[in-house]
Amino acid sequence: MYIPDLYKNENQEAITAFLKENSFGILINQTNGKLWATHIPLELSINALGKIILEGHISKENPQWKGFAENDQVLAIFSGPHSYISPSWYDHENVPTWNYIAVHVYGKIKIIEGDAVIKSLKKLVDKYEQNSENPVQIEDLSKKTMMQTRGIVAFEIEIGEIQAQQKMSQNRDDKNYKNIISELENINTNQSIAVANEMKKCPR
């Protein structure tokens, strides 16, 4: 990913928090000479060897998994809040642009089987059920329901490189920076408010 130095995020703690909070990503690989992409939750974790990984699974009916063996190099893309930035918000003439946060994770993928699959699914379910009024647990599901796990391919991605970009108008002076935040708040959409909040957290 092309990242101008001004927008490069190298704060590992912030990147880790971002990946945990924005775990619904896009898994990209090459299968049968074609690029494939699947939108799935990819959970940050540490494997038995102490290596940082992403865990996930896809349907066996999805041909993408058949490319994991022939080429284990994959890319996972994660997006955060984003919003259009109008040039009318500046006190000088300029061009329109977009503010956004994105993280690209490169790594080697391998299929996991057996108890590791159930362990991975349990972590996923526990994470997203924790705020439910009546949380479901993997251990409570019937054998019949758990038979459906035969229809998935579980995997882990050993992370090789992370590229993180946080483009939040860092190139603007304080006056225009504050005005952008104000205009984003006036738009009052979920995305514009989220971007405004991220801008308020950016060091100046």
Structure description:
InterPro entries: Split_barrel_FMN-bd, TR_PAI2-type. It holds the Pfam family FMN_bind_2. By secondary structure, the chain is of the alpha+beta class. 27% of the residues lie in helices and 36% in strands. It contains 5 helices and 7 strands; from the N terminus they run αββββββααβαα. A 7-stranded antiparallel sheet has the order 2-1-5-6-7-4-3. Strand 1 and strand 2 (34-41) form a beta hairpin. Helix 4 packs antiparallel against helix 5 (190-201). The two termini are 24 Å apart.
Topology of this protein?
Layout: H1 12-21, E1 24-31, E2 34-41, E3 43-46, E4 52-59, E5 73-85, E6 97-112, H2 115-129, H3 143-146, E7 152-167, H4 174-187, H5 190-201
Antiparallel strand pairs: 1-2, 1-5, 3-4, 4-7, 5-6, 6-7
Helix pairs in contact: 4-5
Give the percentage of residues in beta strands. Answer: 35-45%
Number of helices: 5
Number of strands: 7
Average of pLDDT: 95
Distance between the termini: 24 Å
Q: Structural class given helices, strands, pairing?
A: alpha+beta
Largest sheet: 7 strands, antiparallel
Radius of gyration: 20 Å
How does the overall form come out from the CA principal axes?
elongated
Essential attributes:
single chain, 204 residues, alpha+beta, seven-stranded antiparallel beta sheet, 5 helices, elongated
